[in-house]
Automatic annotation (TrEMBL):
InterPro entries: MetalPrtase_cat_dom_sf_prd (IPR023091), YbeY (IPR002036). This is Endoribonuclease YbeY. GO terms for biological process: rRNA processing. Its EC number is 3.1.-.-. Pfam families: YbeY. Keywords: Cytoplasm, Endonuclease, Hydrolase, Metal-binding, Nuclease, Ribosome biogenesis, rRNA processing, Zinc.
Length: 139
């Protein structure tokens, strides 16, 4: 089950479409959907988590805690809406596109993809692009 939680004023406009897409991503990786929680927050909220749990004194757009057991993926994915908005401007993409990239990025970590070295990061970007192409909003 995919859940969306909000620790700030932000709300997804299309929760059902996003959840359906993320479920499709999970199936496309031959995984089973466990409990996946997305928590939308601001920079301060995520910075505190980064300090407390990872001992990193930096701002970031996403932190994912992986509780996957075998093929059933589960986890908590914290997303700073402020970082996503800034990154969208920096990368010259829409906020919605950057948000979808961050959403799927956390999910791909649960599927076993890493991004700590250049080779892994290249594969992660490729997978993000592949999964982003699966998203279709029904009008």
């Amino acid at each position: 089950m995919i859940n969306f939680n909000y620790e700030n004023e932000f709300n997804l406009d299309n929760e059902a479409a996003i959840a359906a897409w993320l479920s499709q991503v999970i199936l496309s990786e031959n995984k089973k959907e466990g409990e996946i929680n997305y928590i939308f927050c601001d920079d301060d909220y995520l910075h505190k988590i980064n300090l407390e749990y990872l001992d990193h004194d930096t701002l970031t757009d996403v932190i994912s805690f992986d509780y996957t057991m075998g093929a059933e993926i589960s986890g908590d994915c914290f997303i700073s809406v402020e970082r996503v908005a800034d990154n969208a401007k920096d990368f010259k993409v829409s906020f919605e596109e950057e948000l979808r990239r961050v959403l799927v990025h956390g999910l791909l970590h649960y599927c076993g993809y890493k991004d700590k070295d250049p080779k892994d990061e290249a594969l992660m970007r490729s997978k993000e692009d592949e999964k982003l192409s699966l998203f279709h909003v029904k009008q």
